[in-house]
User: What shape does this take?
Amino acid sequence: MSFRSLLTSFYDLFDSILNIFFPHVCISCEQKIDDSKELYCLECQHQARITDLHQYKTNQFTEHFPTLSHLHSGCAMYFYIKGGRVQQALELLKYKNKADIGKRLGLHYGHLLKKSDLYKNIQFIIPVPLHTKKLALRGYNQSEYFAMGLAESMNATVQTEIIYRRKDTKTQTEKNRMERIENMRQAFYCKSSFDLNDRYVLLVDDILTTGATLQSCAEVLLEKYPNVKLYMATIAIGNN
Assistant: This one.
């Protein structure tokens, strides 16, 4: 047996032992699953299929940003279905202290993005920031954990000290597109001595609905770095 085969066998054994004490669970229903590479159990996998948006420069994601001419491309890992498995995973991520779900999703999606000609050159990843009040209440930024997973898979660097949130905006859930855009107006600002001009930057959030949040972040980023090569990605894209 070769050294590589022995090493692989050792890692498989270690993973099996680790799984006894820290079982690997589905990110949606939280049932135990045996394969540590999977995100969902078999039942949930059928309802959480990854999109192919990362393969197309113009798609259902980029259509949300008709005025953002500097956007090179954008994509979402899943389509959001109300009551579906992806919604369950997002609720665990955001409201049940399951920050690791964000990183697991990012690790998985990052491998796909790295293989895409559109995203293979990404150098920096910027998560949409939470206001300090909400961050203190939740304890973590779910988009930052998604960014951490992406960065690890894509050999990129997470930048959390570029865009800041100055406005503790009210919930967007019951608002229409125009109300959401107005709600996000001047919610963010950009402050950094680091130069992102001519760099490949991925701006990420947990979910895209109307695009108001990402639009606002992108505008302040482009105002400071007009030559940045801007891309976007989210865990899910809604139907609104």
In short: The CA atoms of residues 191 and 230 lie 17 Å apart. Confidence is low (pLDDT under 50) at residues 3-21.
